[in-house]
Amino acid sequence: MAKVSTSPDSAQQGAIDININAVVSAGAGSGKTSVLSKRFTDLLLRDKSCRVDQILTLTFTKKATVEMNSRIYAELSKAIPEKAKDFYKANIKTLDSYCSQVARLGCHYYGISPDFVIDDATIKARVESMALPFILKNRDNEAIKVLVETKEFDVIASQLFAQSILENSTVAEKIDFKKTLMAQYKVIESEWNKICSELLKAYESMKTAFENYPGNKKTNYFTNLSAILENEPIEIPAVNFNEPISKERTEFISYFKSIADVNKSSAKGIDDIKEIHDCIRRLVDNLNSVENYLYGTQYVNQLIPLFEEFQEMVNQTKRSSGMLTYSDASSLALRILIDHPEIRNIEKEKYRYIMIDEFQDNNSMQRDLLFLLAEKKERNEKSVPKSSELEKDKLFFVGDEKQSIYKFRGADVSVFRGLANDFKKGNRELKTNYRSHPALIAAFNTIFGGINYPPANDEEINSCVFYTQKDEEAKKVSNEIIPDYEAVYHNVEIPLSKIEDITEEEKKKLFVPRVHFALFDKNEPVEDGFENSDVSECYWVAAKIKELLDGKYDNIKYSPNEIAILFRSYSLLPTYERILLNQGIPFISETVKGFYSDGPVNDVMSFLRLVAYPNDKLSFLTILRSPFANLSDFEVKSILTFVDEDKSLFDLDAEICLKGNALLKYKKCQLIYRELLWLVKREKLTKIISYLWDETGYRYETVWNKTVYMYSSAYDRLFELARQADLSNIGISEFVDSIDSYQAESEKLDGMEIPLEASQGVRIMSIHKSKGLEFKVVFICGTGHQGANDSNSQIIYSSKEFGITVNTPANPLSKNKDNYFYKHQKELSANMSCAELRRVTYVALTRAENRLFITGGYKFSDFKKYDYTPEGEKKPSRILDVLMPALSRFVISPYEEAILKGEPAEGLDTAYSIPDVLSKKCPFTFEKIPAFKIPEEDKSRFDRSNVKNKFKDKYEKALVIEKQEPKTVYVSPSHLHEADDETHDYAKYEIVVDKKIPYSQIDTLVLSSISAKKKEPEFTYSNFGTIAHAYIEWAIKNEEVKVLNKEIVGLHGNEKSLEVLDEICRKMQLQFKESEIGKQIADSVSKNKFYKCEYSFKSLVAEKIINGQIDLVFENADCSGFTIVDYKTNKEVNPAIYRNQLACYRDAIAKMMDIDSSKIRCVLYYLRYGRVEDITDICATVDLEKVVSVAE
Questions:
Q1: Are 394 and 352 contacting, i.e. CB atoms less than 8 angstroms apart?
Q2: Quick one: pLDDT at residue 929?
Q3: What's the CA gap between 1116 and 1122, in Å, rounded?
Q4: Less packed terminus of the chain by CB within 10 Å, N or C?
Q5: DSSP-H helix ranges across 238-363
């Protein structure tokens, strides 16, 4: 933790001394905790009448509270010893804790008992368990029926009901669904009229521009436009929210859609027409999203009564159980302070001063609560006061907008940024970083603020990660503003003591780069016998850590606990744990993923499970092979020969199969088991865990063996779980089952604040968990990994502006699937996520004191390819993307590098590929991570040739036992048709590209993917068929269907091939929509008839199970029956060979839908030709029983 020296610098002293409401921006390492502790003492020195308990100090975490207590007491005991005697009365607590305290004062007004407990996990589990039965009870609701067509019942239950209520409603602040809907209606009506008016204006402008165009109007573009513009659009239709589909609205949209759909022209001199045309396209897209909302209101209105009912059920559960969430306590506290001035006045009188740490991680609810506590004494209105209505010197906020990284917990950085306007005279900034080495501080200024490296008087601002002070000033001049969710970087200062009075030579040495990039070039293919990017990166990190531990950096032998490995997510954690363990590097993981796979946990739990379930053979075997007994495989097999499985396994008298030391070890284990049987009847689980760990001597296994040293924390975690179980009066069987869930569900063990024993080990943690910590050396790993993408797959979403919105199905006639509110929230949400990723990156880098290593995999060809600055055209999804604005400044090509070195450059690649570390202004070093060569001994566990030679005589003379293979009972319908032109053996047939056949580019893609090694295509016709099917499904559902990466991996990311593939599929998609069958399915979907894409089924025929998947089945719009469609991508059209396959489908649908097979139509749709082939009559002649009975 950065500390203020004995004499604070001027900025720190200014923050300590300020006597008005203030907000202090304190960057990483600026000594904010010391400033807070000194200010606490200073307030008591200034205001002699103020008592220790009259200063309310609020923190974000319990850990911060403990540190704050310690630091304030140390300051106070030195400065005012007499007041330090009353320190036990000090009010230093988390904001959550204070909210709970206030909530208890008035919760009875809201039907809640004051003895409530905060238990987020239990409430979430209960609400989730209530949701599924609730929607099953209401499954006949029309809205539920529609949503079930795209999502499973459990997903709807979780997202639509459980999550929406848990995240947006509290026991004190219920969602007023009807009020929200009315507010949305108002917005929709306004937007409809506004967009329609703009479209009419655009129509008039286009008509005028069209008429005035002097050029050739006989082109297709002008001919098509002319035909449309001859007919004027109808007047703007009125919005009727009780009319999901309106003939007038549809006609109005269709008219302008026809203009938008006219293909663009490449003609010159029509820029004004093109501009108007593009404007119409954008407006039509926006109008479609409004229309989608209007279409969905029919379902929203049916859901509102269900939402209201479920919300009441949830609140009733909270009241009756006496359990609340943290959000409940916060909103309850705020509501009490607003509604009950008498309670507010008591709280106002209690505290003379309020200090709040890490306020960037809070939100408007917490700000309003603090404003109420700081309002003037005479104010009693039942509302949140304005900043002008506050006491002048009561509030002291500390935070850093660049470190707001808890959006997922409700943090809102805009609230902290807004305080600067509330307290304009009280803005203070701590600019000096006392934590990091000067070279790191200067590098941070270059990376995040665009300032030259090393620092110089002629500072210029280059491309960088954040907005800067200069951006802020420039926008003020142009009357623009920086979005309130973005952070602004202010230049950080190096402590004067480290840079004053140093010579130029000393300065050069001081600013030798201490940021090290090590990247794996993902452009380069990984050869056989070498590891992939992630594993190679991990081995590189392990090797570098060994160098640090051996003293090869800074002439310091770093200890393991001075080094940290930080991840954005835990996906790579198992790989790093495995390799660090393999390399003998001790480590401590803050979050345990695969907790149950740790040997000690498995061993201890096996003993407990055997006590609960005496016949559990697997647990018995685990114990015998564990350090508890350490028997060999042969000895364990001997025991298994004699055990009686009907009795307790440890009842065996092992003297019949073991002798000597092995027998003694077994008997020792037997005694432990019997002791456990006695303990479980008398002692708590914590005592039993301690017995197995300490008294049996197991703990020494993790003490004397350095390679498993990191497992010593397993006891602390297991003990904490046992403690929690004891508090809940859980018995041993239930405890064992609950721990087993970590193995069965691969859960990560998180959220437990355990005081682990101080131990030596490299710390592995997430960037979020590292916040507030500092390490001599930091590795930020996996920086080339992407985060989750935003999509339109959520059923429900919410925003501050529009409230809660259901993502209802789009109007079937609409090409655009987005709901108006989703469309507007999506861009904002994406921008906010990018802004937070920038802040996460800042937090990660600024944990380092001496050295910083940034590792990951990246395509070097992507350097300088995109602009990832805050106002750039590309949104970052990886930490390396965030750093690219700074990194790309120092990127050169091999050609440029050779020129700089004065070497021959002719013929060298001019593409950007490596950072220019030759530059004197480069703040980092760069190293390419090589692919790690797999050691020979790891490729095979044993020499197969030796084994063959050893047993050669035996197997040559051995008798061959002929085993009769059982006949398969499963039959796939796709195997019932004769071989076609896309199911052949590639080794026997030559792939021919015949340009006379439609879409011959497909054959080119397949042919070009044939590898020289395998001599088979890596991108097959089967891959193409799967992708084409997905595009057709997209057309039917009006919802983008994601193509699995495994289907396109054979194209090796070739952008041109992917573009060709996408173009083919989109054309096929359009052909399908315009085909007879495409129009029929669209008609059925619009009338809410049954339909399924990729419909899996099982049916019984001739004592065999038909296991198949139908491409498309739907109920005819006129209710005359059903239609089965099978897509074919073949070059040859030969419908008859598929009669057996579709006869199977027909039989299955007839059975499932309980209708006569004569009412089921069987159709083949040939995607290459856009051709429909009806084979219903042929299918009717198939003797399915006979066909299936002989099938293999």
A1: yes
A2: 92
A3: 5
A4: C
A5: 247-260, 271-321, 326-339, 341-350
Number of residues assigned to the chain: 1192
Q: Is 1061 helix (H, G, I), strand (E, B) or coil?
A: helix
Greater pLDDT, 799 or 17: 17
Average of per-residue pLDDT values in the chain: 86
Residue type at 1020? Answer: T
What one-character DSSP code corresponds to residue 1160?
E
Chain segment 794-822, per-residue pLDDT in tens: 677 777 778 888 888 888 777 777 788 87
8 Å CB contact between 211 and 316: no
pLDDT digits (tens, 9 = 90+) for 354-410: 999 999 988 899 999 999 999 999 999 999 999 999 999 999 999 999 999 988 888
CA distance 440 to 515: 7
Band of pLDDT at residue 1078, cut at 50, 70 and 90: very high
Q: Half-sphere exposure of residue 245, counting CA atoms within 13 Å on the CB side? A: 9
Least confident residue range of 447-461, 768-782, 1154-1168: 447-461
Tokens 């080495």 identify what position? 437
pLDDT value at residue 337: 96
Phi-psi map region of 503: left, alpha, beta (phi>0 left; psi -120 to 50 alpha): beta
Instruction: Look up the CATH architecture of domain 10-115+326-430.
Output: 3-Layer(aba) Sandwich (3.40)
Query: Distance (Å, rounded) from C-alpha 573 to C-alpha 592?
Result: 9
For the record, the structure tokens of 986 come out as 């590639």
| Chain center to CA of 441 | 30
> Which three-class secondary structure state does DSSP give residue 156?
helix
Cβ neighbours around 185 below 10 Å, total = 15
What local confidence, expressed as pLDDT, does residue 712 receive?
66
Pairing label, strands 1160-1166, 515-521: unpaired
Instruction: Write the class of the CATH domain 970-1189.
Output: alpha beta
Tell me: the pLDDT tens digits for 655-670? 888 888 989 999 999 9
End-to-end alpha-carbon separation of the chain, Å? 71
Question: How many other C-beta atoms are found inside a 10 Å radius of the C-beta of residue 277?
Answer: 20
Residue in 171, 468, 147 with CA at minimum distance from that of residue 313: 171
Domains 10-115+326-430 and 970-1189 share a fold: no
> How is the chain split into domains, by residue range?
10-115+326-430, 179-296, 439-509, 592-749, 970-1189
Q: Give the distance from CA 315 to its chain's centroid.
A: 29
Please give the radius of gyration of the chain, using alpha carbons only, rounded to the nearest integer.
35
Residue 208: phi, psi to the nearest 5?
-65, -45
**What single DSSP character describes residue 677?**
H
The Cα–Cα gap between 334 and 329 comes to 9
Asked whether 287 and 203 are in contact (CB, 8 A), the reply is: no
Per-residue pLDDT at 742: 56
551-571 confidence digits (pLDDT tens)? 988 888 999 999 999 999 888
CA dihedral 779, 781, 784, 787 (to 10 degrees): -120
Q: pLDDT tens across 105-139, in order?
A: 999 999 899 989 998 888 998 999 999 999 999 99
DSSP assigned state of 757: P
DSSP single-letter state for residue 54: G
pLDDT of residue 703: 66
Instruction: Give the torsion through C-alpha atoms of 968, 970, 973, 975, to 10 deg.
Output: -30
Q: Is residue 779's pLDDT more than 90? A: yes
How far is Cα 596 from Cα 616, in angstroms, rounded to an integer?
17
Distance between CA atoms of 1191 and 821, rounded to whole angstroms? 54
Q: What type of residue sits at position 369?
A: L
Least confident of 90-94, 483-487, 840-844, 980-984: 980-984
Q: In terms of CATH architecture, what is 592-749?
A: Orthogonal Bundle (1.10)
State which amino acid sits at residue 909.
D
Spatial CB neighbours of 456, under 8 Å, sequence gap ≥ 6 = none
